[in-house]
Structure prediction request, 78 residues.
Amino acid sequence: MSSYRYRCAACGITWEEVANRRQAEQERERHRSEVHGGGAPDGDGIQANESKPWPGSGAILAGLVLVLLLLYSGRHGQ
Ligand SMILES: [Zn+2]
Prediction:
């Protein structure tokens, strides 16, 4: 699950997290038109929280492949 939230640094406001980027963009558009006359304030942006269920799984997989290669070459190298 990813979550997005819009932050306006100029106003010092961070909006509630929403489930998709589209919603965060709508909040951004609304805030920009209501408060900043439709312009983009300095430092505003949408923060994305990408969830990573298996951090480092790429490294573990690479290690596993290396071990298998070593085992394979060990058996056939004698
Ligand atoms: Zn603002």
Notes: The longest strand covers residues 3-8. Helices lie at 21-35, 57-76.
